[in-house]
């Protein structure tokens, strides 16, 4: 019996799989978010503007990451998801190493595209695997653990990135954070196996031939709660990526912190405090949903709207300690949307739609969030520079803060039809009603 087969017989195996997938997700976040810590030294060496750097950390990565995620997810709905994730992490880890050898802006942009291509094959298959391991009553908690990969990755990116940048330089930092991903690829491949589809809900796969992209997209658009959750999560991503990738530069420019100090501060805030918030959201949504299923979206709406005054205060005060004290609340609630959103998407689509539905959600989230969030912040910073000089980035981030209210609005709208959408026709029935089958 192989190692993966022995593991699969253990009672704790499904949580082990979540742990491995979380480590893989954290690795992807390190390789993606390390750019926030390296932005200033790269900008200085390459002589780029904030608008150019916004393009490098935003659209350059997001277009390929989001677009390729959909065909890869369609493959995942038809084939071995574990193998797809193994290949994906190998690609993005190697391309992160290549970033360290880029001689100019164009070469670095091409290497970042390579990272995006690799990362496109990770999250949708992971969401699908978790949905097959955990039923709806525990799926939010499992997704909450998986979503911790964002915060763990940010913690490592900030801590390691700050120290490595200051002591080794940005090129060696890329190499150092890229290589460990290959180890996670080996662990995933040799110690886990492909789960049976629908096992968590004692369901058989609803069709031998998974529905097409058009069918899945049409189904997602036809379900009002899905539509508003996707829009809300995209706006949350717009704000989140804008802050994650520009906060290091803000702390450097406006408060004069060193890279190591920035790494420590943001690791504690985003990694530790943010990680507690991300996990709490999944657990809280599972617990409150037993009383009223609409709490799965109300939790997100309350969190995103509630922290706006505190986040605005971060950019309205001049004292560093006051800004950091205010930032504790936004750091806790920043990732509140992740686990509830992806747990809901998995529950509102059929078995062989799951990876593709997750990918479509991530496509919209990342094109709007990762693609345009950092880019818009960079553009606004350059626009504000004639009036605000060194504090132009502060003003750009202050404007970004209020997008959270728009995000919360869509989650509130999603609550209005969530019960009916969960209790109504199954996704398969909807497909038939839409005339998707011959």
Structural description of this entry:
The chain has 438 residues and is an all-alpha fold. α4 (59-76) runs antiparallel to α18 and α12 (224-255) runs antiparallel to α17. The protein has helices at 3-8, 13-46, 50-57, 59-76, 81-99, 105-119, 123-133, 136-167, 170-178, 180-191, 213-222, 224-255, 259-289, 295-306, 308-316, 320-333, 338-347, 354-388, 392-401, 403-423, 427-433. It contains 21 helices and no strands. The model is unreliable at 431-438 (pLDDT under 50).
Question: Which key features would you list for this structure?
Answer:
438 residues, mainly alpha, Growth Hormone, Chain: A, 0% strand, disordered C terminus
